[in-house]
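Can you please make up a whole protein chain along with its backbone structure tokens because I've never seen that pairing?
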Amino acid sequence: MEKVPLTREGYQNLKQELERLKRVERPENIRAIEEARAHGDLSENAEYAAAKDRQGFLEGRIGELEHKIAHADVIDTRKLDNSRAMFGSRVLVENIDTGEDVEYQLVGPDESNVEKGKISISSPLGRALMGKKPGDALTLQAPGGMRSYEVIEIR
């Protein structure tokens, strides 16, 4: 089985989501199914159909989370070598075209959230940053065209 790279924070977030789904959302959905079933004819009961669809989604997500947690490779980012960009690194880059500095943390696909400054190591920018050190320049094809960056700092 392939390991799923996660930071400690990402691992804890997955565990919390799994607990919430099992302890809160699943029981609420079971009650919704029972209530909809009490309304009678199930063949034309939209509430029942919606609750059953939700049950399928919940069970699928629970199985997915259990798989990811069981195969997690939790990486302690505090012990990383900051000489090169790698999984878990926080990388300060300058967009050479705009002069704007942006900091990204390189994380696994399950943790990526651009609004929070977390990009996947499998994204175009994430792949380009892997192994780079301060002072290195990189150019990559992004959906909006070619982009050029310089690595300023790795934390």
